[in-house]
Amino acid sequence: MANTGLLPFVRGVDFTCNDFSDDKFPDAIRYMTGLQWLRLDKTNLCDIPEELGKLMKLENLSLKKNNLEKLFGELTELKCLRSLNVRHNKVKTSGIPAELFHLEELTTLDLSHNRLKEVPEGLEKAKSLLVLNLSHNRIETIPPTLFVQLTDLLFLDLSHNLLETLPPQTRRLANLQTLILNDNPLGVFQLRQLPSLQSLETLHMRNTQRTLANLPTSLETLSNLSDVDLSKNALTKIPDALYTLLSLKRLNLSDNEISELSAAMDTWQKLESLNLSRNNLTSLPASLCKLQNLRRLHVDDNKLDFEGIPSGIGKLGALEVFSAANNLLEMIPEGLCRCGALKKLNLSCNKLITLPDAVHLLSDLESLQLHGNPDLVMPPKPVERPRGAGLQYYNIDFSLQAQLQLAGAASAESTTTSSVKSDPIARKLRLRRGRPEPEQKDSALILRGMQEQANTQHGDNVLDQRHSELKPKRWDESLEKPPLDYSEFFDEDTGQTPGLQVWEIENFIPAPVDEVAHGKFFEGDCYIVLKTAVEEQGQLSWDIHFWIGSKATLDKGACAAMHAVNLRNLLGAKRTRRHEQGDESPEFMALFPTPPVYIQGSHTPSGFFTVDDPHYVTRLYRVHGAGNSIHLEPVAVRAASLDPRYVFVLDTGLIIYLWYGKKAKNTLKSKARLFAEKINKEERKNKAELIAEPPGKEPKSFWQILGHEEDVPFVPEEHVGEWSSRAVRLYRVELGMGYLELPQPGPAPLSRGALATRNVYILDAHLDVFVWFGKKSSRLVRAAAVKLAQELFNMVTRPPHALVTRLQEGTETQVFKTYFLGWDEIIAVDFTRTAESVARTGVDLASWAKQQETKADLSALFTPRQPAMTASEAKTLADEWNEDLEAMEAFVLEGRHFVRLPENELGVFYSCDCYVFLCRYVLCPDAEEESEGSNVDHETEDDGESATWVVYFWQGRRAPNMGWLTFTFGLERKFKQLCKRLEVVRTHQQQESLKFLSHFHRQFVLRDGKRNLKPEGRLPVELFELRSNGSALCTRLVQVKAEASQLNSAFCYILNVPLEGNGETSSAIVYAWIGSKSDPDSARLIEQMAEDKFNNPWVSLQVLTEGSEPDNFFWVALGGRKPYDTDADYLNYTRLFRCSNEKGYFTVSEKCTDFCQDDLADDDIMILDNGEQVFLWLGAKCSEVEIKLAYKSAQVYIQHMKTVQPDRPRKLFLTLKDKESRRFTKCFHGWGDHKRPPE
Questions:
Q1: Burial environment of residue 48 by CB neighbours within 10 A (0 to 12, 13 to 18, 19 or more)
Q2: SS3 label, residue 859
Q3: CA-to-CA distance for 769 and 767, rounded, in angstroms?
Q4: pLDDT (tens digit per residue) in 935-968
Q5: Considering all CA atoms of the chain, what is the largest pairwise distance in Å, rounded to the nearest integer?
Q6: Where does the UniProt annotation place the signal sequence (predicted)?
Q7: How far, CA to CA in Å, does 450 sit from each of 441, 454, 1167?
Q8: Model's pTM, two decimal places?
Q9: Which end of the chain has the lower number of beta carbons within 10 A, N or C?
Q10: Residues 6+ apart with CB under 8 A from 40
Q11: Distance CA 902, CA 893 (A)
């Protein structure tokens, strides 16, 4: 075998579970001269390999679970040996050389589980020993000289031997911390030496014939003793000496004859575990309840009844395990159920009749064992909240209690609505100018401090607030920051320590560059360089550069720039700097101690797919069952490898053959088929052809590949012996300063989580060897792993068809994945299985379903309706906004140009037109700002720097978007040239802001049609409805369909009835109709609007109250009398919710009270509540998922409203677009035909 030169740098190897029997020990180990630790556990060794004699630097050697009978050989030459572990072998006393104990560095010796009959000769010479384990042997005596020399011992295990006594010299072990003497016939040993061991922390004397007579009367000197095991002895009570151990944490007195306990046990205030099982106890003392640190209490197999357990046991707040099986309990104290930390409760094999109801309230309880209680009747469980409809509704819990809890409210109870509160936003706007006086400032600070203190004291009661007190979320609170996760590209410690870090772009991903390669750049690659420094204030600062090679591909350059920005976002750095080869800045050159070196070529591959002809190695696999999955064993590619009891997979690259033996199991056939299909999909990009023919009908090419050219059909024979799965070995390659190590991360079975993206691993599968490269692994570790894999491959004799395969993270082969539990397992599909049959296999479907719960936000359904703004607040806001408004100029689109709007038309809008309003706002500076700016040049103030220009673009609901384009490319540019600070606000019909509406002083008229467009023939009758939605600021006079059914006694209307003519001089009658239930303010306003907007010399204006209408013109114009609504109480309850999945999860949000018809989105579902009915409105483009979830949300809302407003029960109705009923449309001001998208 050719030496790669890498073995001398290997510092440690774990060869556990290799087969080195029959002189198979690898000769290459002799070249590992730098080896410091070596594990040869479970390697079937019978003798010490002579190759170990070359490892002169070896410090730790483990030879556990082998077949060694003697230790003669090369061990005595290992002068640096510190630790030797040969437990679980067949070593005899005569097989241990005395020279072994002359090793001056030997500190740990484990000879347990062997065949020693006496202490090895010369052991007393090992004066440096700290740890000595001679347990599980046949030693009868300890020589007195042993403890005379080994005075530095810290750990001594002599358990499971034949010792009858210990030498008096045991008292010399003043440093001993752990003494284990279990299972020895120490009946005559009086433990007189024990008080001298003042450093002792652990004492185990299980099954050592202890009685009250052969125990010391006091152990006060053992102040450090915390772990005592006196189980399986003949103690009739707890020895008095134990009560003097104030540091005791663990005490095991099981399997004795103890019948009573002393009240003095409350001295063990540090006790955490107490085991009194299998004794004769009839009761536990009340002093037990004072052990506040007790976590585990075992009293199994005693004679305890209900009276025997103290009622104050609930005081054990730290108790996690209580086991009282096989007693006489008919009931347990309710106090036991008050142990809130209880995780395991074992009451099996008692005489239980029932349990306290509080047992269901143990939220942390993981295990409750009650078998062996035939008369037990469990108390009824508390009523659980009903779950949602499971997977049918995407596993979202739509129960009212659950959704209220998620929304931050208490459980649903019968509540009354709280008093209406004033709008805090309006109050802030109203008071935004005036600054508080100094006294007001002080009082505000005091109130704020009191509020914070109250919030701190009552923080735990936040969840107990009534759901009527929930405040609706502001629009910006519902926005979520996009989830940016850079962990796939950069480590957590990136940029946290001063220094230089470099990455190279490899397959679109930044890969770290080792420090020795910093400053060396390949011309075909791109790099990211991070310089981390510490500023004077102690804060970190970062300089990020990315370097583009002159011959780098496009994908590398783009990814270098992109990931440099990602790194900037991750660290919060200021900027990134770009450098190209040959054009680097001096700052970049200064990052490296020497000038950068350019290397021709490229070190990393391009991320783009390259067109080449891949090379496939023909391989034959024998398929074995391995639980729910399968195992593929590589065999020689020849016909003789076939066996009729198995399924074989012949992989030639673009053709995959499946050969089914006549005696093969059907499950193996289906799993092998699925496995081959997965190879084709994942590795061959569906370019491979699968051929599966029954035996005897194989294609000729199949036999040619297997080397069978004869005309006589090949008859396979049964030749494969009993197969058993062998554990594979996974090595982690670790690289340090001048050394390599190969530890094994963990025991079998392996899982996908064992592979960390920062590391490189070598998987030895007995035949094949795989090298797995993590995405974030370094270049040097990869290079070392490739050579080490070849060394491991050659160390063991393998058949010719064995291979070494290199794998990159994310491109693993299916064969490699089979060695890891649960990684893309191939399970044959069985459509006959039910959930019940799957559950019987042990699968926890409930926990799986809980993990699959989908995120949903229904909190808007439980927030109270936004209260209406009072008239005084609306007036205050309007006065403030209009006071700030210095000037407003109006324009309207005529043709392709905007012209000034006549002053008499201000406030009149047509649904087919577009309007522009240029507003100039001047904010009065505050007093402090004026004093601070007193030194500023007055010319600056005269220039109007404090003025703000706002352009409102208003678009009617039937106006085309051409108006917006005309404004954007024309008028807006002119405005920006004239105005220094210009803000553009685009608004649509009936979606105007409160500030914009306030400028029209409630004189806001919306008409159908287009301005200055005269209809042919007679002018139509026009009916206008006046309505305010949630605020006096939202007052509009909107044209509606001219029918009597549109009237409502709670509103006021204007009816325009044209008489003659077809121009501005045409005569008409204008009626101002005042409903009998309308408020006086609306009546006054309708008369004023009729006078200002409709009256002229050719118009006859009449004010009518409901019931005084003339028949000849009024009712005739409306098409005759028809029934109409006489109240509008629904306006006090109307709410509109939007259901959508646009955030990536299902969410419900509420529209403001000033909603309109255009708020009904085609691709969403709306929920409308009018106080009596709840409508589910389906948009034309909504998905089936949204329909299901919105339906359940509406049901939850109805349940919630039953508790909030029990006197107003609601019913659920479904409505479709263009199919809305009058009960639905009356909630919208100015309902008409739906807006049609432009063709």
A1: buried
A2: helix
A3: 7
A4: 434 444 444 457 889 999 999 999 988 899 889 8
A5: 135
A6: none
A7: 14, 6, 41
A8: 0.59
A9: C
A10: 15, 16, 20, 61, 62, 63, 66
A11: 12
